[in-house]
Fold:
Amino acid sequence: MNQQQDQLEALHEIRNIMDRSSRFISLSGLSGVFAGLSALVGAAVVKWYFSQQNINYYSDQARNFSQEDVLFLLAVALGVLVLAFGTAAYFTARNARKKNQRTWDNQSKRLLANLAIPLATGGVFCAILLYHGILYLVAPAMLVFYGLALLNGSKYTLGDIRYLGIIEIVIGLVACVFVGYGLMLWTLGFGVLHIVYGALVYFKYER
Structure:
């Protein structure tokens, strides 16, 4: 019985070693939580701006937004992106130090490369939408391409990210149909879901 248990423990250890050698497993759940909080703050700022400009996102999809409106939205999006990536880098580096792992290695490089391709494509696509004045599809497109990026990178990190990616894609497609709820669904996808996902990952792997 002891011999069988030792063999199972040995197999488990081998599997852990293989996971560490092929996956970047130092992603911190706290980075997801703070990314979600950043998105919620960004959504609140956009909602405040819309109220000041008497813009009803639900019914004003056909509205021609001014250059000032677009620049403000881009500034908020950039701010959320910087906060999200900044906190992700900080908490991931801290988690890696706890596990005596390197933050920048072949696994993290492969992860970033697989995330970058769909994200860069999505960024260009959103820029094209803005160029043509199709602002109401930008939020759905961000959700879809972000979900594709998570799905593409999930094989190089925690498998839980795969499910987050699938849900983001579904929410993005729903937002493509119900465009009036685009801002609300963006807040759900980038804000609430990130917080829930981050908390689950934190208590599952880091506690």
Summary: The chain has seven helices and no strands.
